[in-house]
């Protein structure tokens, strides 16, 4: 068995609309943190801590080190993640939309199909015809609950302005075609499934045409599906189908998305 990592990390070095912030407490700093945690729960403990009193010294801790600790303040849309129907709107198909903890797990583990759109360039968006052509090229017929991976090569731009503003997104017609085949989970190696915000927002604000703003996302208000964003390394999968995808999301309470360690299994 071979497992290929298709995930990008939650990265606090990236400058984005909702930056991730990670506080890292080292092993050595953990000794002080341990003292603070214990003493802050004791009567007058904070004042005693501030005066220099300690309940344990580094010499009393094995190797002078405590456990490392990272405290992450991040949008659930940083790093590789799964968007649930609740992200798209409060209702879906006339019912309360599924939150990430409600997404059926059989949507998140199944046969994978990688469609190659690396020949397309910004500002082109992937059309229904592009999807049909990509399937014809690999001679594959989609089955219900296949997990479709949309390979654009966009992850190679990570850390640049182009990653945020100049990538190849999907059209609603392309997404609807996949849904018509029984697809419930798809994923893309860009920051978003729709076209870049810079294009969408400009067109919407100049026209106030409702169809111009988050069309693929808002499609999820009338047709139930999930999608992954910020995938990576799709080119490492050695064949376009005949592999398994696992994209089980973290159960974040009352949330519209959850981080996922997405992998391809051969």
Quickly list its features.
two-stranded antiparallel ribbon; 20% strand; 266 residues; 8 helices; nine-stranded mixed sheet; 2 domains; alpha+beta; Glucose Oxidase, domain 1
General description of the model:
With 266 residues, the protein is of the alpha+beta class. It has 2 domains: 3-10 and 77-265, Glucose Oxidase, domain 1; 21-73, no CATH class. Helices cover 24% and strands 20% of the residues. It has 8 helices and 13 strands. A 9-stranded mixed beta sheet has the order 1-13-11-7-8-9-10-4-12. β5 (91-92) and β6 (95-96) form a beta hairpin. α4 (128-138) packs across α6. It is elongated, with a radius of gyration of 22 Å.
Question: In the CATH hierarchy, what is the class of the largest domain?
Answer: Alpha Beta
Distance, first to last CA: 6 Å
The number of helices is 8
Helix fraction by DSSP (H/I, runs of at least 4): 10-25%
CATH architecture of the largest domain: 3-Layer(bba) Sandwich
> Strand arrangement, largest sheet?
1-13-11-7-8-9-10-4-12
Structural class: alpha+beta
Tell me the CATH superfamily of the largest domain.
Putative cyclase
Chain-wise SSE layout:
Layout lengths: L2 E3 L15 E5 L3 H12 L4 H6 L18 E5 L7 E3 L1 H4 L2 E2 L2 E2 L12 E8 L11 H11 L8 E5 L9 H5 L6 H9 L4 E4 L8 H11 L7 H5 L6 E4 L11 E6 L10 E3 L3 E3 L1
Parallel strand pairs: 7-8, 8-9, 9-10
Antiparallel strand pairs: 1-13, 2-3, 4-10, 4-12, 5-6, 7-11, 11-13
Helix pairs in contact: 4-6
């Amino acid at each position: 068995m071979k497992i290929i990592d298709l995930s990008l990390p939650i990265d606090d070095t990236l400058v984005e609309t909702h930056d991730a912030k990670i506080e890292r407490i080292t092993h050595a700093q953990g000794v002080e943190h341990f003292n603070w945690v214990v003493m802050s729960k004791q009567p007058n403990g904070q004042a005693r801590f501030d005066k220099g009193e300690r309940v344990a010294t580094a010499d009393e801790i094995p190797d002078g080190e405590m456990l490392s600790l990272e405290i992450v303040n991040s949008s659930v849309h940083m790093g590789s993640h799964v968007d649930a129907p609740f992200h798209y709107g409060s209702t879906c198909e006339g019912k309360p939309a599924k939150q990430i903890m409600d997404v059926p797990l059989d949507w998140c583990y199944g046969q994978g199909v990688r469609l190659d759109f690396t020949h397309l360039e910004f500002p082109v968006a992937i059309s229904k015809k592009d999807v049909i052509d990509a399937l014809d090229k690999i001679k594959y017929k989609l089955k219900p609950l296949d997990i479709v991976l949309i390979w654009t090569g966009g992850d190679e731009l990570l850390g640049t302005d182009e990653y945020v503003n100049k990538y190849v997104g999907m059209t609603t017609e392309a997404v609807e075609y996949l849904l018509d085949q029984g697809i419930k989970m798809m994923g893309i190696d860009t920051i978003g499934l729709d076209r870049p915000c810079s294009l969408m927002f400009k067109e919407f604000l100049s026209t106030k045409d409702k169809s111009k703003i988050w069309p693929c996302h808002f499609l999820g208000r009338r047709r139930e599906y999930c999608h992954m964003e910020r995938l990576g390394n799709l080119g490492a999968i050695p064949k376009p189908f005949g592999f398994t995808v696992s994209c089980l999301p973290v159960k974040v309470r009352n949330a519209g998305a959850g981080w996922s360690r997405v992998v391809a299994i051969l």
